[in-house]
Design goal:
About 45% of the residues lie in helices and about 10% in strands. The chain is an alpha/beta fold. The strands form two sheets. Strands 1, 2, 3, 4, 7, 8, 9, 10, 11 and 12 form a ten-stranded mixed β-sheet that branches. It has a two-stranded antiparallel sheet with strand order 5-6. Strand 5 and strand 6 form a beta hairpin. It binds zinc ion.
């Protein structure tokens, strides 16, 4: 397959922008300095003031504009309940009335790209006819800044026809997540990236899916809530038929997931199996290898989705960079990390944003340990379980469990994660852009971002050989002093 050289892409794109609008003091575009930003920031604060702030505070050269999501993580104002930052409208966007956060597409829907899907009505209503790319692209281009469409795998049950694209849980109910093997969703994804690539003069597209398969979910292998082993996906007709094509016995898989659900349920009720939790889980995996085959079916379906998106965009315009946001669970759950095989992802990835959110990682790791400590490792005291994870994930010993949420992870974590990813990508053309945490909301008693912490995280990422950094999750939750902390590092490195 043809591989685009990202470096030459970046240089050509930068040269093109400079030719169009000469900027005498333009910095060399050798490293990507990006920030995630949603439509609400441009609406509230104005395009030019926001871009001025980005350039002054942190020498930002690439915008990751949230073009589609039903989630508050990357769109909308500050999450209600967390303090508003020191810029933007000093008001939450929950409640009702004009401007209330709803989610959906923040760009116009060009209907010709959605002919092969029932998902056609997904426009975010909060800003009327406002199209965030139309609003931002001319100013960004004039300044020599690149623009990347950033969208994620987060849907609302209120979207018309969405049931026809949803995943099916093990218990037969519909999930709110959408199935990659369902043509309605697969075609929507391809239609969306084609819409972006043909309708706008963009420089790249990034998509993120913060989900995993049924096995890891049944074991509570993430930092999130849930925990009902019958509400795991996907068991829809498309997935079952794909499983059969791969030689997986669907009936055996169902038996296995029923046995796994019983195991998890017993653990939740405090009933220890005769041979203990860890041994009994191994007995299930040995008896039902279909459990792992089903997990890999889900993971391969995600990888095939990456490949299909990449190839669709390249067929439209090869110069558009395509890459992925890789979920923070990669930093906590060894099973999920095993599934993020960068050598397999690289051929379909011009860049990878590997999430390395050091500050919120403390409470997130503690949450993960709490969850996995109720299933697979229910026999292991949780401090020992945390120490074990520090070992197998190759972290220097960070704080102990009691202190971890209040301390967060150190910049050494960012260094180790970036170095590991860089080494895994050596010999490929894939750029590594670690995601850096600036004010991602944490519980009241948990660690908060600081200018020094942000600075050190950025320094660590570059020291480990990163090709850029992506300041996350969204400008509307960042305090300016912490954003400037990133800028301090960028100046110190001579990248400004
Ligand atoms: Zn499915």
């Amino acid at each position: 397959m043809t591989q685009m050289n990202r470096r030459s892409f970046l240089h050509t794109a930068a040269a093109g922008a400079l030719a169009a609008a000469p900027l005498p003091a333009a910095p060399p575009a050798s490293k990507m300095i990006g920030i995630q930003v949603g439509a609400v920031s441009f609406v509230d604060e104005g395009v030019e003031p926001v871009l001025d702030e980005f350039q002054q505070d942190a020498s930002i050269n690439t915008l990751f504009v949230a073009t589609f999501t039903y989630g508050r993580g990357i769109a909308g104002r500050q999450v209600p309940g967390s303090p508003l930052p020191d810029h933007g409208k000093q008001q939450y966007d929950n409640g009702s009335g004009p401007g209330t956060f709803h989610g959906g597409s923040y760009t116009r829907i060009h209907s010709q790209y959605y002919k092969d899907t029932v998902l056609t009505d997904f426009r975010a209503p909060e800003f009327g006819d406002y199209d965030v790319l139309e609003a931002v692209l001319p100013s960004a281009r004039k300044r020599g800044m690149k623009t990347i469409c950033w969208f994620e795998d987060v849907w609302s049950p209120g979207v018309p026809n969405v049931r026809q694209a949803q995943e099916r849980n093990f218990d037969g109910t519909n999930a709110t997540s959408l199935c990659f093997n369902n043509p309605n969703y697969a075609n929507w994804l391809l239609g969306t990236v084609e819409d972006y690539a043909r309708s706008y003069e963009i420089d790249g597209i990034m998509w993120g899916s913060e989900r995993q398969g049924a096995f890891s979910n049944a074991l509570r292998g993430s930092l999130g809530g849930g925990g009902d082993p019958a509400k795991v996906t996907c068991f829809c007709d498309f997935c079952e038929s794909k499983a059969r094509q791969r030689g997986i016995n669907v009936e055996r898989a169902r038996e296995g997931f029923q046995a796994l659900a019983n195991f998890v349920q017993a653990a939740r009720n405090g009933r220890r199996p005769v041979d203990g939790f860890y041994v009994t889980l191994w007995r299930l995996m040995l008896r039902y290898p279909e459990l792992l085959a089903w997990e890999m079916l889900w993971t391969d379906s995600l990888r095939e989705t990456y490949a299909a998106i990449h190839s669709r965009v390249k067929s439209v315009k090869p110069s558009i960079g395509v890459g992925w946001h890789i979920w923070h669970n990669n930093s906590f759950n060894p099973i999920y990390r095993a599934e993020q095989d960068l050598s397999v992802l690289a051929p379909h990835s011009d860049f990878l944003k590997m999430v390395m959110y050091h500050n919120c990682a403390g409470e997130r790791m503690a949450g993960y340990i709490h969850n996995i400590g109720q299933t697979m490792f229910a026999d292991v005291p949780q401090q020992e379980l945390l120490d074990f994870h520090y070992r197998v994930l190759d972290y220097k010993m960070e704080k102990n469990l009691a202190q971890l949420p209040a301390s967060g992870f150190t910049s050494d974590y960012v260094y180790r994660e970036a170095k590991r990813a860089r080494e895994a990508l050596n010999g490929t053309n894939t750029q590594l852009w670690p995601g850096i945490d600036i004010d991602i909301p944490t519980a009241a008693a948990s660690s908060k971002s600081t200018p020094e912490g942000t600075r050190d995280a950025v320094l660590a990422a570059f020291r480990a050989g990163a090709d850029g950094v992506l300041l996350s999750r969204k400008y509307s939750e960042m305090r300016l002093a912490n954003l400037r902390g990133a800028g301090t590092a960028i100046r110190q490195l001579g990248l400004a």
